[in-house]
Amino acid sequence: MKCKICGHAMIEYAQGTYYLEAGKLFSVPFYYCKNCNTFIRKVDMNSIFSHMNAASYTAIKNEEKFYKARINFFKYIYSIVKKHAGSGMANWLDFGSAYGHFIQFLSKENIDTEGIEIAEQVREYARSKGQKIYETIDAVPSDKKYDVISLIDSLYCSDEPVALVRKLFSMNKENGLLVLRITNRNWIAKFKKRILKKEINLALGDATISYSKKSVTLLLENNGYKIVEIKTLEKGKSLPVKTKLFYIITTILHFLSIGLITLTPGLIIVAKKSSTEV
Fold it and tell me: What predicted TM-score, i.e. pTM, was given to this entire model?
């Protein structure tokens, strides 16, 4: 199998479970790319759709819990983007918009915001609130162009990241911004396998592709974007005490190493459209 980020040959690294609608579980392989430090879980798009519809973060009963846990984090992401975009944020597209909490906040900031959400329950919930939510990226009108496109914990669900980023590139206005939040847990997966001799499934969550700082940079810069900022600090998250302590320790380590050691569990990346075509 070739890496979908850099094209190098991958090795089969481990097995992990994957769950679908109706509680179905099956085991799938994880592949690892040594060149760009990427894990890929081998699942097809139909399974990804089924999984997303079965996930806890797409259940309507959990809407209030996720609002409280993430609204301040969304505000923090907005503050980062605003620093780079200034007043140039007339419209915004949120890819993987879930319940529409980020859209709700951005609309209050007088930004014309739309979303894309493949999970039916949360998509219909957001639509019931009057939000414009597309079922897929291909459903967005071809003439629509956005100042900002965000993918907050949603890039990982795509099994064809290059095609997705190129599509997003075509939807960004000239000098438009792309903002991503990704997990940064590949080092944890390798530690669990090599040192603790445990399975890596929990470390990588339900990601189809688990990125590293190197691989996400390659993905963006090879497809028309220039990285303008990578944030390791993730303010505003509601976290258990142990997880919060882990964030603090890895953030301090990052700063003490002058950015050479990046072990924080998540990364926020802001990139600018740097060319007119890819």
Answer: 0.95
